[in-house]
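User: structure tokens for this one?
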Amino acid sequence: MSSISDYVDLGQPMFWSLQQDQVRVLSKNKKQAEKDLKISLRNKQEKQLTHIITKLFGGNSLYGCYALAVTIFTIGIIRDSIYERALRTQPTHPLLTGPVSNALALALFTSGNILVLTSMYALGITGTYLGDYFGILMDEMVTGFPFNICSAPMYYGSTLSFLGSALWFGKPAGVVLTGVVFVVYKIALRFEDPFTGGIYAERERKEKIEGKKSR
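Assistant:
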């Protein structure tokens, strides 16, 4: 009788490398999110003015956000490369090969990329790459496609793409890693969603106060 060890090579360093990277990122994001949620939004805005990235670009928050965007995009490419290398030497399961599995893989990969790319188009560079941390807010929160399908299309789209890749190559280890990525994303959303919603709620509150004063 076959076991999971027959199809998931836990001895491969690359398999654990991706999971360790995800845990480190989650730990860092969790600590930062907890700190952000404990202070007021006003203090958060003041802190952003002295943010180290902004300082590096002469106090220009837009340039700082662009630099962060390049960094995150580059790290994403490295992450995808690690994922591909982790799968390359993993065992293949016969149930994950064949035309049905390949068709499902293509559907998942395509739909995942549609969610990611359309959300990036809707948000723009600053909306996609943490512009709100630099005090760069959109005119209003995006609620159209693909955000009318799910609240975090980038995270869910990325998860679908990972799963599609795992099925395309017939690697059970890829399915396991996809599960790890999904859990990390879900935990991150517990901190990100309240923070983002709070920023726009605070701006709306200030606009109402200013509107009353101008009357």
